[in-house]
Amino acid sequence: MKLLSPAQTRALDQATSKAQGITSLELMERAATTLLDWLLTTLQPTYTTPIHLFCGPGNNGGDGLALARLLHEAGYVAHVWLLPAERYSADFTANRHQLPDGISCQELDTARLPDLPAGAVVVDALFGAGLNRPLTGLAAAVVAYLNAAAAFTVAVDIPSGLFADAAQEPDSAVVQAQYTVSFELPKLAFLLPQNAGFVGEWHILPIGLEPVVIHKTAVDNYYVDAAFLQGRLPARPKFSHKGTFGHALLLAGSRGKVGAAVLAASACLRGGVGLLTVRVPEVGYFILQTTVPEAMCLTDPAPDFLTELPDLQPYAAVGMGPGLGQAEASREVLRQLLHKAKVPLVLDADALNLLGANRDLLDLLPPDTLLTPHPKEFERLTGEPARDDYHRLEQLRAFTRQRRCYCVLKGAYTVLATPDGIIYFNSTGNPGMATGGSGDVLTGLLLALRADKRLSPLNAALLGLYAHGRAGDLAARETGEAGLVAGDLVRFIGPALQELMASPHRL
Ligand SMILES: NC(=O)C1=CN([C@@H]2O[C@H](COP(=O)(O)OP(=O)(O)OC[C@H]3O[C@@H](n4cnc5c(N)ncnc54)[C@H](O)[C@@H]3O)[C@@H](O)[C@H]2O)[C@H](O)CC1
Ligand SMILES: [K+]
């Protein structure tokens, strides 16, 4: 799914009205009807549950007014609270006039704010995508009041006071919603950790906005769900052999961290690689051969960490980093790898820390290299702490553009940035995956997909991120989130990939 800017969303609304021959008021009615359906199904209010709708002066307020009418007509108790303003939008005014007489409708006033008992439902329709400055005065006071109340809050389109795709000043007045219900496409703001306390759980309701217009709209940010990946993972041909899927080399492990090599190697095999050779120091030989018998083991002459780069000729892709350690000799192995590699590289963990500590090495990155830092490792790569999540995204875009690389940034919504500066947000995964070794599993899986010559660098990375998160979701059903360990992810990589491959749109 594409993430549109507020201006693009407005243009999409207008194009939809034109293409479908409906007025913006009719589109608003469609939005409100869908919202009513969602609210009744999800919250299941009783006929006596008070539902307080806080409506601002624009079309977000118009949505709230239309919803109030529909709730009232369906027999629910709706109270409308209007935010006084100098100007009201036409569709707000039209819906204001359509409010039935029997509905309670009052203007907000700092001296008279509604009583919101626990169990009441608040619908926040104060401001939506049209917010153009921070909230002040009465609007800010109402937001503070709502946030202090014990009511259950549903934000329409976006929590009021939150910008859809730009950072707020710290301590801005923003509604803290339990649910945010938006239309057709998610907003960038929903995907950033700094906004989690405002957005709550978000849902997208399709309202029939024109797909052709969405298709033609150029964006810098995407949200990757299963539909987005349909057809990107080709089935394994009937007459394939292990050479079809590539021979990968994994450089990993040091004394005390051989487990990282084991996890990455197991994940690479489950990711469908044809052949895997793992280069570990001597200390890892017995461990690897017994835990991952499917992999070939090529030991380094040194006992505890890697000191020599093997001949790269046989390999279709090389991964380096899990459990590597940061010994000087291993740094030189990395340097040689960057100099010599002519095949796709996946760099993670200590390989990234070595890059961060020796940033001259970044100049050697071969094009299309895939890096998989978490935010702290990424900060070491740039050498500059991010001011906020939006700034970090811009740093990421600048980094991948400058280095012509692909960079994954791990987090609740793991993102991928491409050499064109496009960012993709992954949709799968759960907090259970915040556990040691998860990243090693991702590296191994990505290595397998990069070794498969049938996949573009973009598709390999997107499929790998999605399948990794999906494996976590499948595993958590069995283990619970707290009980999830990285080895569980490995077990579910196969089923996660199979789901993607089994798509009905596969050729
Ligand atoms: N996305 C869709 O497909 C649909 C969205 N709908 C709803 O429409 C709103 C956007 O409506 P818009 O009128 O453009 O914006 P707002 O309601 O957010 O209000 C704009 C209004 O408020 C003024 N304003 C902006 N910031 C402030 C501020 N800080 N303080 C005071 N006043 C402010 C601004 O000048 C305008 O006058 C969208 O979110 C959806 O809810 C459609 O209903 C259906 C299709
Ligand atoms: K809102």
Automatic annotation (TrEMBL):
Cofactor note: Binds 1 potassium ion per subunit.
Cell cycle as UniProt keyword: no
EC number in record: 4.2.1.136, 5.1.99.6
Pfam families linked to this entry: Carb_kinase, YjeF_N
Binding positions (K(+)): N60, D124, S160
Annotated positions binding (6S)-NADPHX: 59-63, 128-134, 157, 260, 323, 374, 440
Limits of the YjeF N-terminal domain: 9-215
Sections of the chain in a coiled coil: none
Reactions it catalyzes: (6R)-NADHX = (6S)-NADHX; (6S)-NADPHX + ADP = AMP + phosphate + NADPH + H(+); (6R)-NADPHX = (6S)-NADPHX; (6S)-NADHX + ADP = AMP + phosphate + NADH + H(+)
UniProt domain YjeF C-terminal: residue ranges: 225-500
Keywords from the named record: ATP-binding, Isomerase, Lyase, Metal-binding, Multifunctional enzyme, NAD, NADP, Nucleotide-binding, Potassium
Cofactor(s) needed for function: K(+); Mg(2+)
GO molecular function: ADP-dependent NAD(P)H-hydrate dehydratase activity; ATP binding; metal ion binding; NAD(P)HX epimerase activity
Binding site for AMP: K410, G411, A412, Y413, T414, G439
Its biological purpose: Catalyzes the dehydration of the S-form of NAD(P)HX at the expense of ADP, which is converted to AMP. Together with NAD(P)HX epimerase, which catalyzes the epimerization of the S- and R-forms, the enzyme allows the repair of both epimers of NAD(P)HX, a damaged form of NAD(P)H that is a result of enzymatic or heat-dependent hydration.
Similarity comment: In the N-terminal section; belongs to the NnrE/AIBP family.
Subunit structure: Homotetramer.
Name of the protein: Bifunctional NAD(P)H-hydrate repair enzyme
Organism: Hymenobacter swuensis DY53
